[in-house]
What does this fold into?
Amino acid sequence: MHIGLRIFFGFFLIVGLATVLTLRVFVQEVKPGVRQAMEDTLIDTAHVLAALAADDLKAGRIADGAFARHMAALRDVPVNAEVSGLHKDSIGYRVYVTDASGIVRFDSTGTDVGHDYSRWNDVYLTLRGQYGARSTRADPADEASTVMHVAAPVRDGERIIGVLTVAKPNAAMAPFIARSQRKILFYGALLIGTACVIGLACTLWLAHGLSRLRGYARAVAAGARAEMPLRGAGELAELGRAVQGMRERLEDKQYVEHYIHTLTHEMKSPLAAIGGAAELLQEEMPAADRQRFVANIRTQSGRLETMIRKLLALAEVEQRQRLEVREPVPLAPLLAQLCAELEPRARQRGVALQCPAEGGPGHVAGDPFLLRQAIANLLENAIDFAPPGSAVTVALERRRDALAITVADQGPGIPDYALPRVFERFYSLPRPHGADKSTGLGLCFAREVATLHDGAVTLANRPGGGALAELVLPAA
It folds into this structure.
């Protein structure tokens, strides 16, 4: 399973279980809590009414005295109240009074007068000086028909002469309980939904950061230029910087080892030539031979100097992950300037250099020095391989959102075995007419510059003969 899904499900499981358990406790506590509050109110009411009924019960007129008349009048008293959004329009109490034997002497509903209630808990316990209460179903088959009865003693001094019970159906509290439960469930669902959104956002943030780090690590492993994608002071950014530091240390070590190996290999040939010529110069020889060996030393030392200079330039480009500053570079004037500078070299080799007019299309954003060096390498390469009497054609054209520079020569082309390797460092083909091979760094340099500018460079054979180099760069 994807790590993002595992994190999300883990977070949601913890929050969800905590919320469900909390909601369950709240919902389960709502009904008992409301009934306990109602019981507390009934206790107060029962004791107040018991004190008011004491005189009539003691005088034997509880059924038709002042207390009974006031209770009967309550039935016609209008009630118009809003209790937390719920309308109340009637009094829901039932009040009955028993004598010291538990016989009902007054009932506000008039239904159970004369009945023996001495065995009901409310009456039985209260007559014995205890707290008497009960909850009994009005309909034995209906669980929702329970009625709460709370009793208080009717006293004559210290003597208990009867019991007054206040009864109220639990169903009267059902709307309040249902509304409270709905609110709790609503806010619980809102809490779970909010937690889900927060968890999803945190998971996406974490998974996105890990995904970017994974992409960065894969790009590094593939040898591609990659910039550390995370910034800031967070743990993921710190992990990214640690990975970047490790990468730089490993790359530097491998880079130095690789360059030492390749540079040592490439320097063997010119150093051997210089050493051999130096040994021969220690002997007596004709002046012409001496001059030839001196010229050979000068040529090979120049070759070493060129190799080291190009190698340093290539190393600098390869180590750059991105261009720090980009500026508009018009390509047509740059091509015209390079053609003018390389015209003498082309004429010396008997090659015609054909360049586009200066009013060419568009410009690119990048480093003008690096672009100049890369294009110069392509032109020099084409001039070196072009046979005398042929032409090197340079063109600049727009291709949708890109500008393409093409350099075509009429030389022998590239052997099939060399096509996959022409951009390798130090790989070089023999020049025509026995000329020395190049350093093999020019095309590699051009490829690195193209990559830095988000472009591409290719070298292929032309259908009509010769080679075609193409540098494609995004237009600014």
